[in-house]
Amino acid sequence: MAMPYNPQQLEGKWQKFWNEQGTNKTAEDSSKPKFYCLEQFPYPSGRLHMGHMRVYSIGDVIARLKRMNGYQVLHPMGWDAFGLPAENAAVKFGAQPAKWTYENIDFMKNQLNRLGVSIDWSREVATCSPDYYKWTQWLFLTFLEQGLAYRKRAFVNWCPECSTVLANEQVIDGLCWRCDSEVTKKDLEQWFFKITDYAERLLTDLDNLPGWPEKVRTMQKNWIGKSEGANITFTIPELDNEEVTVFTTRPDTLFGVSYMVLAPEHPLVPKLIAGKAEEAKVLAFVEEMKKESDITRTSTDAEKVGLFTGAYAKHALTGEQVPIWVANYVLLDYGTGSVMGVPAHDERDFAFAKKYDLPIHVVINPEDADVLVEEIGVDAAFTEDGTMINSGQFDGMPNREAIKAIADHLEKEGKGGLTTTYRLRDWLVSRQRYWGTPIPIIYCDDCGVVPVPKDQLPVTLPEDVVIDGKRNPLTSSEDFLHTTCPTCGGKARRETDTMDTFIDSSWYYLRYTDSQNKEMPFSKENADKWMQVDEYIGGIEHAILHLLYSRFFTKVLHDAGMFSFDEPFRSLLTQGMVLKDGTKMSKSKGNVVSPDEMIEKYGADTVRLFILFAAPPERDLDWTDTGVEGSFRFLNRVWRLVESHSDLIKTGQVVNAQDDAAKELNRTTHYAIKKVTEDIGERYTFNTAISTIMELVNKLYTYPETSDRGTLAFGLENLIVLLAPIAPHIAEEMWQMIGKSGSVHNQEWPQFDPQALVLDEVEIVIQINGKVRDKMVVANGLSKEDLEKHVLATEKAIALIDGKTVRKVIAVPGKLVNIVVG
Ligand code: ANZ
Ligand code: ZN
After folding, report:
1. Is 143 helix (H, G, I), strand (E, B) or coil?
2. Which of 321, 543, 567, 792 is the most exposed place for a label (fewest CB within 10 A)?
3. Measuring CA to CA, which residue among 670, 668, 610 is closest to residue 634?
4. What CATH number is attached to the domain comprising 782?
5. Last residue of a domain, one of 735, 757, 779
6. Mean pLDDT of all residues in 52-62
7. Rounded to 5 degrees, what are φ and ψ at 139?
């Protein structure tokens, strides 16, 4: 009696079995090559969504395939478990952040297990556990030892309602993303990591990452924002010749300067306006600007707004008086925080000069005769290249050459020179929040800033605190706050800021290599053994921050001698979104498809198969009910096929493909092995791999009763193996059903036979004097000479030659025979 396909029953059974057998444990075997397959770890928000299902299905197929291909595979998982949502839950439901987080972890881990992903849970990490954050603190101290962590006052985004700093991304149209109150800038003492020290290496080493999508490398490149130009120093006579330096990419336009602009927060501004008529107005403007985020201030559609300070600078070369302005579009922390205005040759400066009626001096003469020098600065700026004019000794020089010539001249005069600037800023790592890794620093009245000695870690986060969403409870937790100074033993207090959670996630992939280590975050040996991550799979939303921070961490720890590689992720796969009806699934749109319901209804194998079949991994995937139904029907079809032949395979027949149908099936089976191996293993086009498996199933269904049984058995057996990485449960069940011992997941991946792929016959083209005249089927594999001989003897060829003299024959085996007659 036929047994129906019952995924609900068999999936649970195999998951339990694999757990008991330790099938998913990392099988260390140094005789095999290693493969580190990693998906970005989730934030334990409550439950997994379809986007998670997608990324973990993709990673699991790769990990399973590599295991079957004879690699020792590391495929771990953990939890990015610190962060604001746990505090929000605490405010909203009175939940305790630790308890809330660990409950979510339990739930989501169960969901992952139900998806059938082959994770080595013995290496699990949760960034909120003291066993983990002890090492995050240890690494913070390592950065400090390396001179890469420092404290400084800085203007940061501050929400007065939430009493915390916000990242730039958390300020939306000038309001706090959480409470909608107006965000201000606050001058605060904060901890920073000196990522700018690594700007150049982070940039150039992008060239060593051919396995990364071009798009991601470009995004990182733009984020680092290297800009080559010059610093030019002007003086301010009325301030006793105090110096002010501008950064420009166009030192060639120096003689065209008609004003200078300082960032409103520039420290010179109060001195410039002191006692002047402009003072009150400028001060009010400065206050207003402090509230606006940099993004708003510099957006291209933002109106350029400025005010004259009443003060003048002396031009670095001509000595002319240059009025000094403040304006919204000049940022304090880019370049030197001040710019020279050249309206004739810069669009932005042109608009500003027109608006405020500032002079426009042309200093570059177009080479192109169509552009008249008289018209520059009338309707628009001239930003192309040309010849220097009105620029003293530099007149007549091509402006590109003048860039260096003027910079060299300035350098000689001690007034500047060539320089490079990066857009990348140092990483502000302190947060005035509770649910994060405590920064291991102690403040002592006598000794100042004292790092907690490494052997006293972890600085434990107290869990019995009251969270009101307004104040970091650490600032009022007596037990936490008061301590003794490690240096002098006197009374001291702890840093109450916690670390940006991006620090936690910048090194978790290293901890997996040695997650039980009690002496160190990881040993050099284990890190060197498993790293780099061979395939890293995750969302494009992490293209900059997480990936850049992880690269930075890896370089710093490499330089500190902790391992020998200096890039963490050899290859990167960024998966597309999961859509429903063409839009992103979201609660507010009511179009969320629940993974649990789908697994409940169809089983995990169907969900995995659909997700992998519906689109290549980088593309967005549209969830359709008909698509899922189709995947479910396909697995049922496979099931019936194997079930109805389960006894055949037990008889152990061998392949004896003599008749045409057997040869054809044998070829299809070998072709499927080749295609699936390459599609999954090299191209990651799981969708085309699955299409190929579907074609094999069709061939097996129509295979004649009378043809060779061994060939059929061989096809069925390989079908199960090829399906195993994609639909692991049904494959395991069918493997057992056909009488095989051991897990299908421990099978060696099949090799295709190139001989079996060769066709017996091929169709070739017959040409007369280079023109196609006919087609002909001939035996495959003939040599040039044999092909020529064979074709010339056929009736077709004789008719085409039509009694003319054959002057030459060009035979290309497998393709054509061209007969030249005349
Ligand atoms: C004079 C000039 C003349 C400029 C000209 C451009 C064209 P990137 O490529 O982005 O580095 N700038 C410098 N510091 C700035 C700051 N803190 N805030 C806003 N703008 C700033 O561009 C560098 C150019 O942006 C600099 O070159 C400066 O304007 C401006 F025909 O100086 B330029
Ligand atoms: Zn002290």
Report:
1. helix
2. 321
3. 610
4. 3.10.20.590
5. 757
6. 97
7. -70, -35
Same domain, 280 and 185: no
pTM: 0.87
Q: How far is the C-alpha of 497 from the C-alpha of 429, rounded, in Å?
A: 9
CA–centroid distance, residue 496 to ligand 2 (Å): 17
Q: What is the pLDDT of residue 169?
A: 58
With the most atoms of ligand 1 within 8 angstroms of its CB, the residue from 222, 248, 269, 391 to mutate is 248
The residues placing their C-beta within 5 Å of ligand 2, an ion, are 444, 446-447, 485, 487-488, 490
Q: Say whether both 656 and 714 belong to one domain.
A: yes
Query: In whole angstroms, how far apart are CA 68 and each of 71, 179, 530, 806?
Result: 7, 51, 18, 57
Domain that holds residue 154: 139-222+426-501
Task: Give the number of the ligand closest to the Cα of residue 487.
Answer: 2
Looking at the 3D structure of the chain, how many domains does it have? Answer: 5
Position 1 in a domain: no
Residue 21 lies in a domain: no
| Interstrand relation of 806-812 and 771-779 (parallel, antiparallel or unpaired) | unpaired
Kindly report, residue by residue over 169-197, the tens digit of the pLDDT.
577 777 887 788 888 888 889 999 999 99
Angle, CA of 632, 636 and 640, to the nearest 5°: 175
Q: What is the pLDDT of residue 451?
A: 98
Q: What is the pLDDT of residues 612-648, one digit of tens each?
A: 999 999 999 999 999 999 999 999 999 999 999 998 8
Tokens, residue 772: 């196609």
194 and 57 co-located in one domain: no
- Alpha helix (H) ranges present in 520-624? 524-530, 545-559, 595-602, 604-613
CATH number of the domain that 519 lies in? 3.40.50.620
Whole-number Å distance, alpha carbon 705 to ligand 2 midpoint, is 89
- Residues facing residue 623 across a β-bridge: 580
